[in-house]
Amino acid sequence: MDNREQDGTNDWYDGGCIPVDDPAQYLNEYYSGEPFTMYDACNGEGLTMQMTESCGGMWISEHPDFWYNGFYYQGGEWNGYPMFTDGMDAYLYFLDPDHDGSGFW
């Protein structure tokens, strides 16, 4: 997660990082519509997320930096994966620096 002007090609860590084994790792939880927790390896804490019915978005809550809490909607694609934004310069996107599918959100 980040709050800088960017295009998703660099990891300008500022708000968290969610390591995954593959880009689809949390899709089942996401599509369930129930709140679920993802581990923020950069801050060592869990982030609670939940898919909503409008705009393909999700709520982020319990982030250690409250600035990142709120509703995120899909604002396009970066690096061939969905990019989500809160509309106020915070972004959630998949970065795969090794181009092998083992990157992080």
Descriptive keywords:
single chain, 105 residues, mainly beta, six-stranded antiparallel beta sheet
Description of the molecule:
The chain has 105 residues and is mainly β. It has a domain of 66 residues. Helices cover 6% and strands 30% of the residues. It has 1 helix and 6 strands. The chain has a 6-stranded antiparallel beta sheet. The longest helix has 6 residues. It is globular, with a radius of gyration of 12 Å.
Global geometry:
globular
Number of helices: 1
Give a count of the beta strands, DSSP E runs of length 2 or more: 6
User: From the helix content, strand content and strand pairing, which structural class follows?
Assistant: mainly beta
**Helical residue percent band:** under 10%
- Low-confidence region ranges: none
Order of helices and strands: HEEEEEE
Strand order of the largest sheet: 1-2-3-4-5-6
The main pleated sheet reads as: 6 strands, antiparallel
What is the residue-mean pLDDT, rounded to a whole number? 75
Oligomer: single chain
Alpha carbon gyration radius: 12 Å
Strand content: 25-35%
Amino-to-carboxy terminus distance: 7 Å
Note the topology.
Layout lengths: L26 H6 L3 E5 L4 E7 L6 E4 L8 E9 L2 E5 L5 E2 L13
Antiparallel strand pairs: 1-2, 2-3, 3-4, 4-5, 5-6
Brief summary:
By secondary structure, the protein is mainly beta.
